[in-house]
Each structure stands twice: as structure tokens, then as C-alpha cells.
Design brief:
This protein is an alpha+beta fold. It is built from 3 helices and 4 strands, in the order H-E-E-E-H-E-H. The chain has helices at residues 2-72, 105-118, 135-142, and strands at residues 77-83, 89-91, 97-99, 123-129.
């Protein structure tokens, strides 16, 4: 009989070892599943961070390009210099006919244009010397 008890005990031990092995496998599978979930979550976070970094990089490139564009393209300014210097003959207080002294409008316009060119700005001086100027001409010159 002691042999029979030994066989029963050996069988019980084998059964318990098998149950223990199965439980260890279950535990290992659960641990692997949790590790995969953690890794997937981390990978998603990394992708999200990379997307945000890429978005910021593209925005920085856009901003740099916009700054370059603003620095390179200066707005053109037109100055319309309208001058008139008609011949005026008038009678002075003593009753003597006199002619008005001519203004040096050409020289003034040249001085202004030289000053503009000296500073290398995007300003264009349009000189019109006329006693009468139509509005259409004025706007067409300014829009050039």
C-alpha cells in the first residue's frame, strides 16, 4: 500500500505542477499583452509628438518665407508732383505792368528726385508741369 499512496501523491504533484505551469503561462500572456498595450500607447504618443513637431517646423518655414517676402518686396510709393508756372502779367500798386518771376520748379523736382534716389527707396517721382490737369491722367499716372 505504501506504493499505491506514493503513486497517488506523485499523480497529485504532477497535476499541481501542470496547473502551476498553466497559471504561469496565463500570467506571462497577460504580462505580454499589458506590455504590448503600453508600447502601443507610447508609439501613438511618439507619433503624435512627431506630428506636432513637423507641424511646427512647417509653420516656421512658412513664417521664414513670409518674413523674407516682406523684407524683399517693398511697397512702391508714387509721388505726384504737380507744378504750374504760367506767365502772369499784372499791374502793381503804382500802375506799372509787371511780369511774375518764374519759379524754378524743374530744379526743385530734380532735387527731390535726387534725394529719393540717394536713399534707394521704392519711391517714384512723377513730375507733371501743366496749368490744367485732367483727373483721368492723374489716376493713370499714379497706378503705373
Amino acid at each position: 500500500m505504501p506504493r499505491r499512496k506514493l503513486q497517488i501523491m506523485t499523480k497529485r504533484i504532477a497535476t499541481k505542477e501542470k496547473e502551476l505551469c498553466n497559471e504561469e503561462l496565463k500570467l506571462q500572456k497577460e504580462q505580454d499583452r499589458e506590455n504590448r498595450n503600453i508600447e502601443n500607447t507610447r508609439n501613438k504618443e511618439i507619433v503624435n509628438i512627431n506630428n506636432k513637431v513637423e507641424y511646427q517646423r512647417l509653420k516656421q518655414i512658412e513664417l521664414d518665407n513670409e518674413i523674407k517676402k516682406l523684407k524683399s518686396s517693398k511697397e512702391k510709393i508714387n509721388i505726384l508732383f504737380i507744378a504750374s508756372n504760367p506767365d502772369i502779367i499784372f499791374t502793381d500798386e503804382e500802375g506799372v505792368l509787371r511780369e511774375q518771376q518764374r519759379l524754378s520748379l524743374d530744379k526743385e523736382a530734380r532735387d527731390i528726385e535726387e534725394s529719393i534716389q540717394k536713399h534707394q527707396t521704392e519711391i517714384q517721382l512723377v513730375l507733371l508741369q501743366s496749368g490744367r490737369l485732367e483727373l483721368k491722367i492723374y489716376f493713370s499716372i499714379l497706378m503705373k
